[in-house]
Amino acid sequence: INPLDGTGDVKDANVTAFRHALVEADDQDLGKQLALIRELELPCSSIVHSGGKSIHAIVRVDAESATEYRRRVDRLYEICEANGLKVDQQNRNPSRLSRLPGIMRGAARQYLIDGRCGAASFDTWLEHIAELQDDLPDIIHIPATAAELPPMAPELIAGVLRKGHKMRISGPSKAG
């Protein structure tokens, strides 16, 4: 999922850029895995069906270094777990390989579920998650609530005053 130096070894030391992390949750129903990946709006480069019991989300982390990669993957996995996606913890390493769409895995074909989807970047995704976790009330869209307003009180003076409301009448000094 990340480029290697071409020496033939697939080890963390051979990774030349820390662009992606693998999110795989093979202990849950496939539909639930996919629904949680989409609901969390993970910044995916692709989502692949493994041909088995898991969905592989190739998540863009765009880390500058191995240290930043580890920090970002830790945060990614922490957020996934907190939101119900039971991530396979063995997939943290940057040299991790993933499934290849179109290839048979036993009797089942691995296939691409989606291409680039979710948040535009890892940083944008973190901002989105922070907004979801703030303690502010949810945004209410006025057109949706307008149909649910309580009935208006009866009019006492048509177009001017309703029962239970207050009215103030004023005029210039000495106008009577």
Overview of the structural elements:
The protein has four helices and eight strands, in the order E-H-E-E-H-E-E-E-H-H-E-E. It has 176 residues and is α+β, with helices and mostly antiparallel strands. The strands form three sheets. A four-stranded antiparallel β-sheet has the order 1-3-2-6. It starts with 17 loop residues before the first strand and ends in a 14-residue tail after the last strand. 22% of the residues are buried. The mean pLDDT is 90.
Summarize the structure.
This protein has 4 helices and 8 strands. With 176 residues, it is of the alpha+beta class.
The helix-and-strand class reads: alpha+beta
How much strand?
15-25%
Write down the overall geometry. Answer: elongated
First-residue to last-residue Cα separation? 86 Å
What is the share of helical residues?
10-25%
Tell me about the largest β-sheet: 4 strands, antiparallel
Task: Summarize model confidence as the mean pLDDT.
Answer: 90
As a whole number of angstroms, the C-alpha radius of gyration is: 27 Å
How many DSSP H or I helices? 4
- Quantity of strands, as a count: 8
- Helix and strand sequence: EHEEHEEEHHEE
Low-confidence stretches: none
Strand order of the largest sheet: 1-3-2-6
How are the SSEs ordered, and which strands pair?
Blueprint: E1 18-24, H1 30-39, E2 44-49, E3 55-63, H2 66-82, E4 104-105, E5 108-109, E6 111-114, H3 122-132, H4 142-146, E7 155-157, E8 161-162
Antiparallel strand pairs: 1-3, 2-3, 2-6, 4-5, 7-8
